[in-house]
Amino acid sequence: MERVPDAWRLLPCPSNEYDMVNLSVNINKVATLRNARGGNVPNVETVATDCERFGADGITVHPRPDERHIKHDDVFALRPLIRTEFNIEGYPSEDFMKLVLLAKPSQVTLVPDAPDALTSSAGWVVADHLEFLTSIVDRLKEAGIRTSIFVGTDEENIRLAAKTGTDRVELYTEPYAQMYPTNPEAAVEPFVRAAEAAHRVGLGLNAGHDLNLENLKYFKEHVPHLQEVSIGHSLISDALYMGLEATIKAYKECLK
Q1: Does the annotation mark 2 as catalytic?
Q2: Which residue of the set 69, 85, 209, 228 is catalytic?
Q3: 170-192 confidence digits (pLDDT tens)
Q4: H/E segment holding residue 190
Q5: How many angstroms separate the CA atoms of 33 and 28, rounded?
Q6: Which of 52, 85, 89, 170 is catalytic?
Q7: Catalytic-role residue among 62, 69, 170, 228
């Protein structure tokens, strides 16, 4: 891993409090397409800055251990370019921690993915990893990095997450997305309770996974205290048909 120039460390991170729900665009799929052919097309740096220019409130990347999409070099190339919020998510291995402590993004989202996971498929069972997560959160907060822990909707699990000292939790929304087409009220109800539980213990609230133009507006309108959603696969897929600018504007419209 290349050492980050000292000047980069001086870049300010944006404020972590917003009046509206922020849209963070996950650009992993852009890197997947680039890596399929080699070279630098599409250019992840250009896409990231275009996303910001078109109205995105942040950029998310999820570097995997095998660097099959976002590479460590991408993280360092993106860091000085991003003017909104830079969120790096991943399993907090020692290599991952070295990366984020050098890059110093606005936020690190801790996910429990195995190294070979295709995509995130569950949140942390905090009781089984409380000491480990607490030590990771301590290291990140000492570096001035906001932390978020990826969790499901279990309210006791969310209360335990607060004990780690994390700033936020991110709700894993695939169960909502799966049920939404047939029963939106039942789909969103556990997330409403989870949001209230997070708020009661002083946690900020993010959400992500399989949110899209069909289900996002309903989720935003019903889940209280929501601060940020992170969306990648659906948004990048929609952009193939609608164009990136129109797609980002459509997602932002859902969050009004």
Answers
A1: no
A2: 209
A3: 999 999 999 999 999 999 999 99
A4: helix 184-200
A5: 9
A6: 89
A7: 62
Pair of tokens at residue 199: 């708020």
**Residue 87 burial class via C-beta count within 10 angstroms: exposed 0-12, middle 13-18, buried 19 and up:** buried
210 token code pair: 């399989």
How far is CA 230 from each of CA 1, 117, 142, 149, 182, rounded to the nearest angstrom? Answer: 26, 18, 25, 13, 23
Quote the strand ranges of the chain, DSSP E.
22-26, 58-61, 85-90, 107-110, 146-151, 168-172, 204-208, 226-231
Q: Which residue in 173, 137, 132, 3 sits closest to 73, CA to CA? A: 3
Nearest CA to 150 out of 187, 108, 190 is that of 108
Residue-wise pLDDT for 7-65, tens only, equals 333 333 333 334 589 999 999 999 999 999 989 999 999 999 999 999 999 999 999 99
Question: Has 89 been annotated as catalytic?
Answer: yes
For residue range 1-20, list pLDDT tens digits in order: 433 433 333 333 333 334 58
Tokens of 116: 């070979």
Please report, for residues 60, 168, 201, the alpha-carbon distance to residue 138 in angstroms, rounded to integers and kept in the order given.
22, 14, 18
Q: Is the peptide bond before 42 cis (omega within 30 degrees of 0)?
A: yes
Q: Are 81 and 52 in contact (CB under 8 A)?
A: no
85 is catalytic: no
